């Protein structure tokens, strides 16, 4: 009996080992202690994550020794307004090919998935864009995956509208929310709104019942008003510090209320223009780094294009050194990819490498309930290397070769 049990056990182990395509060894993984071994199977999924102290080699399997570099999933961008010249609010059916190119471009920029973000515009434009994205999502295969849509507006406080056009702002009521969503509620994942526009709280209650994450932003909410919104189920803050009252020692505002709330996540644009490095450090410490903060790009349509002046709805924007402003100087966004924020945080010594990587890869997933790096995860992995002398952090995608083995691509 013992003999047969042993044979079955060894056969099962042999079958499992024959399914392994790649061993990544001596890896640092955010959230794990010590060096790890990552086994990737032939279906390009994580099969096992083991400490190197339990290292088991398989002679027939390709081995990639990363020598203490960090390994992570790709980034998830929860706020990106466009790329390659296309603003997502301008989407029409003939843009499907360009949308596919954007997905490929973002994949090359280290992004696994994203939420196309629709800024304030007409209801008709929003409904049209939602329809195109919904159709595209049914057939998308390659590139960074579209998870759904982030609506940044139009339920914003006019006093904090920033670059959002005032004529298209709407009152925050359940009726207006229904009008805006139409029959596309299922693909809207996040909506940014100013909760003080609806003292009844009915709109947030309706949105949460529909499974939509509510993020406070472009708002004048006091700490008390923000806390009321969080009690109703709002769980995010859009681009912390921007388009909201600043922190004050007697009125902490919505950001102060968010930072002390254990279940609220704040988005951060780490370009050094939207938030100064000192305030970024303060925000990260107060928000317990990736526990309460996540990085976004807030990139606009010129992402991937040269510097210059570009059309933006009926206005124009100027791109200079990765920063986007209206011609009157109003800050509108960036053209820096998500992972540049990770590199900035390390270069400026605002936080350590592990936290910086987690802010773009783990924290956004956590904010909207996506799986983190674990067994059975798709092995869309990045390798990060820090040059100690210069504090320069670079990354590469780890790709499996169809005939076995690996190669690295997307060096940044």
Present the secondary structure layout.
Blueprint lengths: L1 H17 L1 E8 L8 E6 L4 E6 L10 E4 L4 E4 L1 E6 L1 E2 L2 E2 L8 H13 L2 E9 L3 H15 L7 E2 L2 E4 L21 H8 L6 E6 L8 H8 L3 E4 L6 H10 L3 E2 L15 H7 L5 E5 L7 H10 L6 E4 L11 E5 L2 E6 L2 E4 L4 E4 L3 H10 L5 H9 L1 H6 L12 E7 L4 E9 L5 E4 L3
Parallel strand pairs: 1-4, 6-9, 9-10, 9-11, 11-12, 12-13, 13-14, 14-15, 15-16
Antiparallel strand pairs: 1-2, 2-3, 5-21, 7-8, 17-18, 18-19, 19-20, 21-22, 22-23
How does this structure look, described?
The structure is a single chain. Helix 6 crosses helix 7 and helix 9 runs antiparallel to helix 10. It is globular and about 65 Å long. A hairpin with an 8-residue loop joins strand 1 and strand 2. The strands form five sheets. Strands 6, 9, 10, 11, 12, 13, 14, 15 and 16 form a nine-stranded parallel β-sheet that branches. The protein has a four-stranded mixed β-sheet with strand order 3-2-1-4. A four-stranded antiparallel β-sheet has the order 5-21-22-23. The protein has two domains: 98 residues, Urease, subunit C, domain 1, CATH 2.30.40; 295 residues, Metal-dependent hydrolases (TIM Barrel), CATH 3.20.20.140. It has eleven helices and 23 strands. By secondary structure, the chain is an alpha/beta fold.
């Amino acid at each position: 009996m013992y003999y047969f049990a042993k044979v079955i056990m060894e056969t099962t182990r042999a079958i499992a080992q024959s399914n392994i395509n790649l061993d990544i060894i001596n890896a640092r993984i955010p959230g794990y202690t010590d060096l790890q071994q990552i086994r990737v199977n032939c279906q390009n999924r994580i099969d096992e994550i083991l400490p190197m102290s339990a290292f088991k080699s398989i002679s027939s399997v390709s081995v990639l020794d990363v020598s203490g570099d960090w390994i992570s999933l790709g980034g998830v961008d929860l706020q990106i307004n466009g790329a390659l010249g296309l603003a997502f609010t301008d989407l029409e059916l003939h843009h499907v090919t360009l949308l596919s190119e954007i997905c490929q471009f973002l994949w090359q920029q280290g992004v696994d998935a994203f939420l196309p973000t629709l800024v304030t515009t007409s209801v008709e434009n929003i409904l049209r864009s939602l329809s195109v994205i919904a159709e595209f999502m049914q057939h998308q295969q390659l590139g960074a995956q579209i998870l759904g849509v982030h609506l940044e507006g139009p339920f914003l406080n006019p006093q904090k509208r920033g670059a959002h056009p005032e004529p298209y702002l709407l009152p925050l009521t359940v009726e207006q929310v229904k009008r805006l969503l139409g029959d596309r509620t299922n693909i809207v994942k996040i909506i940014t709104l100013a909760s003080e526009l609806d003292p009844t709280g009915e709109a947030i209650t309706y949105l949460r019942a529909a499974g939509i994450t509510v993020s406070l932003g472009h708002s004048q909410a006091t700490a008390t008003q923000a806390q009321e919104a969080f009690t109703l189920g709002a769980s995010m803050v859009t681009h912390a510090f921007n388009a909201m009252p600043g922190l004050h020692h007697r009125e902490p505002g919505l950001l102060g209320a968010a930072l002390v709330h254990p279940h609220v996540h704040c988005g951060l644009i780490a370009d050094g223009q939207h938030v100064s490095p000192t305030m970024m450090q303060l925000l990260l410490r107060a928000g317990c780094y990736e526990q309460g903060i996540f990085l976004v790009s807030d990139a606009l349509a010129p992402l991937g294009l040269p510097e210059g002046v570009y059309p933006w709805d009926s206005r124009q924007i100027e791109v200079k050194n990765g920063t986007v402003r209206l011609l009157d100087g109003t800050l509108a966004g960036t053209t820096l990819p998500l992972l540049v924020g990770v590199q900035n945080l390390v270069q400026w010594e605002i936080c350590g490498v592990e936290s910086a990587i987690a802010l773009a890869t783990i924290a956004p997933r956590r904010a909207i309930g996506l799986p983190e790096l674990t067994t059975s995860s798709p092995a869309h992995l990045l390798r990060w290397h820090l040059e100690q002398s210069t504090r320069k952090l670079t990354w590469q995608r780890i790709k499996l070769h169809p005939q076995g083995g690996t190669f690295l691509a997307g060096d940044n």
